[in-house]
Structure formats: C-alpha cells, structure tokens
TrEMBL record:
SMART domains: HSF (SM00415). Keywords: DNA-binding, Nucleus. GO terms for molecular function: DNA-binding transcription factor activity; sequence-specific DNA binding. This is HSF-type DNA-binding domain-containing protein. It comes from the Eukaryota. InterPro entries: HSF_DNA-bd (IPR000232), WH-like_DNA-bd_sf (IPR036388), WH_DNA-bd_sf (IPR036390). The keyword Protein transport does not apply. It is found in: Nucleus. It comes from Saprolegnia diclina (strain VS20).
Length: 185
C-alpha cells in the first residue's frame, strides 16, 4: 500500500491486518499465542482459545483458517509444531515481522495476484433482468421450502406429544374402568 505525501514523495503505510496482528501478539496470553524466544516468529499454542477468545477481539471473525489465509497473503510461512504436551501448535514467520520491530511492518505488503477477466460480461440489460427474475423465483422457492420444513417440524412435535400422552390415556382409562367396576360391586 503506498500513499502520497504532500510533496509528491511516496511512503508506505502499514496494513491494518499486520498492525492488529502485532498488537494482538503483544497483548495475548502467552499460553494461547506469542512470540518465539528469539522474536523471529510467533506461535499459536492453543488454537481453540485463539479462535474463541483472541481473534474476535481484533478481527470480525473467529476463524483460525481465515487468519492463516491472511498471513499467507502477506507472505508468512507456516510450520505445524508439537508442543511438549503433544498438542499441536502453529508457528508463523516472516523476515520483516519481528518482536520489537513494529516500525518495519510497513515494508510487508500484500501479494498481488492477477485476477482473470470474466469470460463473457453481460452484453445487455435483458440478461441481467433475466438473472434477477430467476433469483427472485429461487428466493420464493427457498421461502416455500423453509415454510414446508417448519410445517413438517411442527407435525413431528405434535405427533411426539400425542405418543407421549398415549400411555397416560390408556392408564387413566384402565383406572377409571376399575373404579367404575368397584363402585358397581
């Protein structure tokens, strides 16, 4: 990411993802994730806690694999390790991402990929209109399917309630027959 300064020179800005990741490592409980002893890499020691307690604080998701994908986009290398208690942990390394070197983060940039051009762009508004109409029909069909699922679920619940009441009704009828028999005798 480059931004222009007032005098026409270009300066690199640090991607927000890298700033958040760096700050996360500085503040994260070390049993969950942190820097390696030499500060050349960082390790995620508890994937579960990392996903549930750390990622949501810094990012809009709690998906470890999405986090790893982002790291890959910035050129980080990953290694899966076994810790002393044999639980898996993951180490990530980038030559310019080091403990105590926050100012150098602006040198790490996203990899650029070439995106292929669409093979056949929509040639006219008729195609777009047809697709929108089809989408509307699909949404209506989905709504009908969901309504049917709800009806079937309700029928299942009612049937289950009747099955649970059936033994009680049989016992009660038998009891009333006995009481009636005893009263006549």
């Amino acid at each position: 990411m480059a931004s222009s300064t007032g005098d026409g020179r270009h300066s690199l800005t640090t991607p927000v993802f890298l700033l958040k990741t760096y700050e996360m490592l500085e503040r994260c409980p070390t049993h969950v994730a942190g820097w390696t002893d030499d500060g050349e890499a960082f390790v995620v020691r508890s994937k579960t806690e990392f996903e549930t307690k750390v990622l949501p604080v810094y990012f809009k998701h709690r998906n470890f694999h999405s986090f790893v994908r982002q790291l890959n986009i910035y050129g980080f290398k990953k290694a899966r390790l076994e810790s002393s208690d044999m639980s898996p942990s993951w180490e990530f390394q980038h030559p310019k991402f080091r403990r105590g070197a926050k100012r150098g983060l602006n040198q790490i940039q996203r990899r650029t990929t070439t995106t292929p051009e669409p093979e056949a762009p929509f040639e006219n508004s008729h195609e777009v209109a047809a697709l929108r109409l089809k989408l509307t029909h699909l949404r209506e069909h989905l709504a009908n399917l969901n309504a049917n699922i709800e009806r079937v679920a309700l029928l299942v619940v009612r049937k289950r309630k009747r099955e649970l009441q059936l033994p009680t009704d049989v016992v009660m009828t038998s009891f009333l027959d006995q009481v009636d028999w005893n009263l006549e005798a």
